[in-house]
Amino acid sequence: MRIAVLSDVHSNWEALKAVWYDLKELRIDAVYFLGDIIGYGPQPRACWETACVMATDMIRGNHEEGLLDLDFAAKYFNGSALTGVQFTDQQLNVAEKAAIARLPYNLVLPELDITLAHGSFSDHWDYIDEADRAREEIPHFQTKLCFVGHTHIPFIFGSEEGLIKDITEDMLLAGEQKFLINVGSVGQPRDGDCRACYAVIEIREGQFYFDLRRVFYDIQKTADAIYKHDLPSWLAERLFSGE
Ligand SMILES: [Fe+2]
Prior knowledge:
The chain has 9 helices and 12 strands. By secondary structure, it is an alpha/beta fold.
């Protein structure tokens, strides 16, 4: 059994397409999205439609929340995030927004021993951006693995090992410990690597093996679409630097 976990596509269709091609080669059995399919970027409809085709299941992120509740967006979002949801609001139709409104905040998949959340399982939109916060989160989920996104920075935190510095290929998630895993961002990476990022987990003989995939895509095409729709130009600039 091999699953892919994607987060924070942020209306970057070029990045999502590149990931789709990449995971087709890997013969993935199930694909899960952790939210923020839309927001910031120029192609919300293409991303939403593509995600609907790809996804086994998905949950909502704070940008879906902001789209559904513009007061929430006005209260919590910075300028470019707010511009992004207002743009998305114009681009998507009523049926698409109704489908987004049906997305749950979390999903627990007991058969896989996996929990899915956007920011954290204990607090939807909280940012797990330091080891102490990751440790605090561990008792809140009951499965062996919990996947999150939201910060756009990948990490693996083991309940015994702590923050794992060196993420290797086909890495065994060893021992009896639980793992909190951030899968990074497909469409707006912020860890200094501009390539689209997502995770693949293979379950072999009851063991979990982890791969963090990085995929090149045509950033210039997405940047051109950002300029074309008059979205803030720094949203394009940050894609090239991955920050
Ligand atoms: Fe995000």
